[in-house]
Write a structure and sequence with these properties.
Layout (H helix, E strand, L loop, with lengths): L8 E2 L2 H11 L8 H11 L5 H5 L2 H16 L4 E2 H18 L5 H23 L4 H6 L2 H29 L8 H7 L11 H15 L1 H16 L1 H9 L4 H13 L6 E5 L3 E3 L2 E3 L4 E4 L1 H5 L18 H4 L20 H18 E5 L8 E3 L3 E3 L4 E6 L2
Antiparallel strand pairs: 1-3, 2-10, 3-6, 4-5, 7-10, 8-9
This protein binds protoporphyrin IX containing FE (HEM).
Length: 378
């Protein structure tokens, strides 16, 4: 579905209709030829080498947020990781264009939209009451406001870079503004540009914030792994910890596809129109692919061990042509954040922390707040 016969499948109305309605029709929610054209345009901006240019911005956000959190008596773990992930995506897109007030407003709007969009998806019978009670209208107004905030950035950037092209920063917005379609040589229209920017927020912020929160929780629970991260000179071990966390708690725990034509898979007949849920969490927890799948064991993510695995048994970023465009971005961000935290702080639970249970919203949340504090590691 994702790779060999991907042309026979499209994303469902949940992603292309319901999510698109509030978050715009960018890469994640787009389909068909239009999606391919956009993907070709945007892909080069996410190349691993290009992302190195963003490392400094990411590091600055991480240091600021950690210092701020360390100054508080205690705080909610997920709120902390959301601040980091949102700060990073803002800075990666707009370098220093967004002021603090605008950043806060956009953050609030996107949180509200992401929390809301699950209702018409999970409970389709609520769609009419949501419309009739004006709740849908209020959220559509929030979506419009987010578009206006982004439009202002685009207008400002265009004006500033026309005056002095040497001033154009090396960020994602500039990359999107500078890219040209292969066939026409034209740039993206503003409307499409806003869609793509909002989708990068939607796809890239909550996912990474959840991944960071789960990884920190795992390190809290496994002090021996934290100790190893501090002493082990092998930088790949951190990647193994991150990947094992993404296996146990994949932020994108499910995705879907609708069959366009007939197909067969694993002995099932798939008729056109069937919607198939690709249960990423289920694959990651299956004893068919992982011995003792519930155990946190970073060693199983060692590059040598990966070769023994079915290539599609580890799908935190999906697979095939629609593989997450931000996978290197997310890994870089997590590596930088965890390295900084591990080297400079210890995350401590306040009292005895309850064991969080995964809660499957659009991304995989923890079902309860975890109060923690940052203690400087000397
Ligand atoms: C740990 C963090 C992340 C996880 C687990 C994750 C997961 C995924 C998955 C599973 C898909 C494929 C969905 C499907 O095929 O149906 C996807 C697509 C996508 N992701 Fe990510 N993602 C993460 C971070 C990011 C970041 C940081 C960005 C951007 C800065 C991003 C942007 C996107 C976009 C634009 C798509 C759509 C790609 C396309 O269809 O062409 N993601 N992501």
């Amino acid at each position: 579905m994702l790779q060999r016969n991907h042309r026979n499948y499209e994303k469902s109305e949940i992603q292309t209709g319901q999510m698109g309605k509030y978050l715009g029709f960018g890469l994640l929610t787009n389909t068909g030829d239009d999606w391919l054209r956009q993907r070709r345009l945007i892909q080069p901006g996410f190349h691993r080498q290009r992302l190195q240019a963003l490392t400094r911005e990411m590091q600055a956000v991480i240091e600021e947020e950690c210092a701020r959190a360390a100054g508080e008596a205690d705080f909610d773990l997920f709120k902390f990781t959301r601040q980091i992930a949102f700060g990073i995506i803002v800075r990666a897109l707009f370098t220093n264009g967004f002021g603090e007030r605008e950043t806060r407003r956009l953050h609030t709007i996107l949180d509200k939209l992401q929390a809301y969009v699950i209702y018409p998806i999970r409970l389709p019978f609520l769609r009419t009451p949501l419309r009739l009670t004006g709740i849908e209208r209020r959220h559509l107004a929030l979506a419009r406001e987010s578009r206006e905030l982004v439009q202002r950035q685009i207008t400002q950037r265009k004006a500033c870079c026309t005056r002095d092209p040497a001033q154009s920063p090396d960020d994602l917005l500039q990359m999107l503004l500078d890219s040209r379609y292969e066939d026409t040589g034209e740039p993206m229209e503003d409307r499409q540009l806003i869609d793509e920017i909002l989708i990068l927020f939607a796809a890239g912020y909550e996912t990474t914030a959840n991944a960071l929160a789960w990884t920190l929780w795992l390190l809290l629970k496994h002090p021996e792994e934290l100790a190893r991260l501090r002493t082990d000179a092998d930088p790949d071990y951190l990647t193994q910890v991150i990947e094992e966390s993404l296996r146990l708690y994949p932020p994108a725990w499910i995705t879907d596809r609708v069959a366009l034509g007939p197909d067969t898979a694993a002995g099932f007949t798939i008729d056109p129109g069937y919607t198939i849920g690709l249960f990423i969490y289920g694959i990651h927890h299956s004893p068919r692919y992982y011995a003792e799948p519930e155990v946190f064991r970073p060693a199983r993510m060692h590059p040598d061990r990966k070769k023994e695995r079915h290539p599609f048994s580890f799908l935190p970023f999906g697979g095939g042509p629609r593989l997450c465009i931000g996978n290197h971005f997310a890994l870089l961000e997590m590596q930088l954040a965890l390295r900084h935290l591990v080297d400079h702080y210890t995350v401590e639970g306040v009292g005895t922390l309850p064991e969080p249970v995964p809660k499957p919203y659009i991304t995989l949340h923890q079902d309860r707040p975890l109060r923690v504090r940052l203690v400087e590691y000397l």
